[in-house]
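Note to self: keep these together.
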Amino acid sequence: METTTTNTTTKFYLRFDVLQRIEHWVLVASFTTLAVTGLVQKFALFPLSPIIVRLLGGIESVRIIHRVAATVFLIEAIYHLISIGYKLYVEKKSASMLPGIKDLQDAFQTLAFNLGLAKERPKMGRYNFIEKAEYWALVWGLVIMALTGFMLWNPIATTRWLPGEVVPAAKAAHGAEAVLAVLAIMLWHFYHVHIRHWNASMFTGHLTREEMEEEHALELEKIEQGQVGPEVSPEERKRRLRVFIPVASVLSLVLLYGVFRFVTFEQTAITTLPPAERNVPVFVRATSTPVPTPTVTPTPQAVQPAVGELSWEGGIGDLFARQCGACHGQAGGFSVSDYSSVMKGGVNGPVIIPGNAEDSRLIRVVGGGNHPGKFTDVELSVIRDWINAGALER
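Structure:
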């Protein structure tokens, strides 16, 4: 537990062994990947999100990376569970991460010390109340994210057993817990470990005596008094291993199979549908594309109004409503329900360029003659003149 440097009198105490440090950095990598790939999907309209999505190869790649990181996170949780069992049963170490009454007392005494109401900091053991709170918050987050993640990953299977409302509810809970976890790491963990006092034990594996006195004074006293916990004899270790290894192996296989079923239970919603008929002709000339039957209206007067009289409220709006309203009403990507909607355009951008009819997408699409909704030559001429005149509303 204790080593001394060769050139100074500074003592160092073992905090984390190599396996614990590797486990921590795998956790850091998987958590960070999940945070980045998850938040760019939750906040897709944030200016930085599209840039990250493009750098990662597109939204499908982002989703695949997110799911791979989730799988790594689950596998590490299994390893952590088995390692805890090994330390508790084989090495007979105490469950020092379990919270107790002393942690509550330490929290109040720390608050009182920070406010100047107490003279001394509390003496805390191997894990103080702050570290225990972080640990159990991580466990809680793992449970929530695993349950809601399964629902989002397997929506068809979920709705076979639960109401359909649970899927959007799971999405909301998944995103909210992700934001909470990221904020907890950035504001809480970073402050206590890297800002308030730089703790390098996850890099070096050790703490100095001064660091132990400040954060784990109670553990330091036990170490210096030789109270390092029960020693397990080689014979007892072998006996316990004969029990632990088969139990841990079976439990690991069961949990790993659970992770495998988690990620392969349902590929996509499409795979649950009946297979489509194959070798169907893509295009059959005799079959026309069904379109809504346009409303039969009288042909507009062939007399074209003067340019100064052309406006949306002066008749252009009625013309769009008659010829385009059946397909482009209130719903859809492009609406002709009012002037602002027409000028706003559709999912591909504006369709009208005021003052430039020939470059307007509306004229190029409708004037080609292949669009389901057709204007007469007179109507099209009126619309061109309206656009060239500035596409006025009134």
